[in-house]
Amino acid sequence: MSNILRYNEGEGSDNKDECDGARKTEQPSLKYTEMEGANEWMSLPANEKQLYDLFRSGKRHPAMEMADAAMKIKRSPNQVFLLLVGLRGSGKSSTVNYLFETNIARTSDSKSETRSTTEYMLQMKSNEWRIPDLTLSLIDTPGFGDTGGFAQDARNIMSIRYFLNSHPNLIQNNYPNLVMIIQSINDNRMEGESSSFAKMLKGLSQIDTIDHYNPNVVIVLTHATSIARNPKIWEERVKKKKEEVRAIVRLYLGIKPEIVVQENLPEENDLERDGDWYLLPNRDKQPKILYQACKRILDRAGDKLGHEAVAVGFIHGINKTVLKGFSILSSEVTSKDADKMHTILIQSIVQLSSSSEVGTMLENYKKKKNMTDLENDILILQVKFRDLHISNSSDLQTMTMNQLMSKFHPLKITSQMQKILGDVFGMHYKQ
Ligand SMILES: Nc1nc2c(ncn2[C@@H]2O[C@H](COP(=O)(O)OP(=O)(O)O)[C@@H](O)[C@H]2O)c(=O)[nH]1
Ligand SMILES: [Mg+2]
């Protein structure tokens, strides 16, 4: 049997959910093969006009339906984009190579290497939907935390914006179907709001890659076995890391991401096998859990095309041609654009001022309450107040919660944050 889905045949796959690794079980609508004129193959239309012309000529095909759905949520109609970002050496290449069984260049960007935002295209076809040329583009980006410092980081980040602006199959304001943020779970560059991780998110938030209406972000915490092996301790540490990451992502990107842990070197780290899967210390199966996280994001967004490309890309052993595609060199970024981003990155490293009155009040509240689960919310408030230049409590006393909410947008003020704001500053909603 060729085309066996990667994981539904593995030994010990005793449960139906196993097939979830692929798309067979739940298709969005009527199977194409059940429709009139089935078996005709059609390429995805590239824009509104092509789609319209096809409709007018009386054609009906799933390729049209998918392109239409994609454009409605500001995704490319004829190509699926997965943007990879992460700190230097975080495991970007390893992660996608492992997930899709491909081989996009695996290098740790050293000083001599050319920095660029480069597309690697997986050329596939969708048998299910009779689409001959399904393309999944993995966009590899220069690692953040460049040896060239913030000035280089700024250029690198801007090269992503240039890429998205000038790619031939991306229409103005299209979002990547998925933004995959790779971070080593034991990397202390993640801690605190002035960490490299936070700065990377800050940069990312400025280049319009994050879709707030249909969130497109998955965080992959790599080196999963490095924090512990004992299942109980491992789970506790993973839970804590996830909470930290969730808070910092909420702060800078204003969305709730999917978060998955992964060990990219499962053999070397003696992970137990279960059929085609490797078992993490809590017995979660990888990379199935990463695939499923991507699928949840795409399904929530109604991104059928993204779903199909990721599902086909995930199938074990099928032929996937990888071609190097479009590329933008960081050196192509103009000094003006690089400087603008540089300023943003520099500003985000200003420490939370302990001399700020509101900062101190929040700090005291945290100490008094002595509740660790307040920490992330207080941190978020401190950072937001700093960024909004709110330092005196009198600034807040003349403000309603509703006004503060609009200042915080797109970050939501959670009920716990409301409680804190009420307790510390006496802020309330006005109907
Ligand atoms: N132990 C372990 N090593 C990893 C993992 N992910 C990546 N690496 C190693 O970290 C180094 C950098 O990985 P790479 O994928 O090239 O990172 P990139 O620069 O972000 O693309 C390589 O030597 C990888 O083998 C992981 O999950 N666990
Ligand atoms: Mg790499």
Automatic annotation (TrEMBL):
Report any Pfam family annotated for this entry: Septin
- Note whether Transmembrane occurs among the keywords: no
Database matches in InterPro entries? G_SEPTIN_dom, P-loop_NTPase
Matching entries from SUPFAM superfamilies are given as: P-loop containing nucleoside triphosphate hydrolases
**Chain segments annotated as transmembrane:** none
Give the Septin-type G domain ranges: 81-154
Single annotated GO MF:
GTP binding
The UniProt regions of compositional bias labelled Basic and acidic residues, in chain numbering, are: 13-26
Which ranges form a coiled coil? none
Give the region (Disordered) as residue ranges. Answer: 1-26
Sorted UniProt keywords: GTP-binding, Nucleotide-binding
Protein family (similarity comment):
Belongs to the TRAFAC class TrmE-Era-EngA-EngB-Septin-like GTPase superfamily. Septin GTPase family.
- UniProt name for this protein: Septin-type G domain-containing protein
Query: Which organism is the protein's source?
Result: Mytilus galloprovincialis (Mediterranean mussel)
